[in-house]
């Protein structure tokens, strides 16, 4: 009888990647030490040699996701385009891990990887002329807008009904007009995201103009 192939050695990197893969497949609610242990073929207690707690596990998963995102950096392009590119990269990574968005949105920035990512983004926003308070606000708005839009897009395919299936839309003519547009498609979500970025960039321009006027 052939001997089954040996399992790869357990490491922290393998544990974290296994956790992220589990969330990608089954969602955040499926992530438990017991379930992850079964997926990796070990007892749950064995995982504690590589993560100190479930909170440490989640922090590590979030750091993996942030590790897929390019850091914000200065370049020859106008700052407006760099802001848009940063947001697009953030969105692209979240769209590849939509089930993990609640983890990304809910974790404090207490790991080396997440802190490095945020520090680079704040540095870039300060370099275009925002003070640290405004940079923090803008980064929060960009993150919240992107996370929310990705969550909406990811959840669209799971909605069992549209308003027209359960409501008499003759009572809601404007909502009825929206129904006439049909279902949201990836290209429509892309266009909506770009429109939102236009609003945010215009807001940054207004902040910079106000700061310049105060200095005059």
Indicate the radius of gyration in whole angstroms.
Answer: 22 Å
Biggest β-sheet, characterized?
none
- Low-pLDDT stretches are none
What is the beta-strand fraction?
Answer: under 5%
Query: How far is the first residue's CA from the last residue's CA?
Result: 84 Å
**Helix and strand string, N-terminal first?**
HHHHHHHHHH
Structural class: mainly alpha
**Beta-strand segment tally:** 0
**Average pLDDT for all residues:** 90
Overall 3D form: flat
Please work out how many helical segments DSSP would assign. Answer: 10
Q: Specify the helix fraction band.
A: 55-70%
Describe the structure.
- The protein has 216 residues and is mainly α.
- Helix content is 66%, strand content 0%.
- It is built from ten helices and no strands.
- The chain has helices at residues 12-26, 33-40, 54-67, 79-96, 101-106, 112-127, 132-156, 163-166, 173-179, 186-215.
- The chain is flat, with a radius of gyration of 22 Å.
- The termini are far apart.
Structural topology:
Elements: H1 12-26, H2 33-40, H3 54-67, H4 79-96, H5 101-106, H6 112-127, H7 132-156, H8 163-166, H9 173-179, H10 186-215
Helix pairs in contact: 1-3, 3-6, 4-7, 4-10, 6-7, 7-10
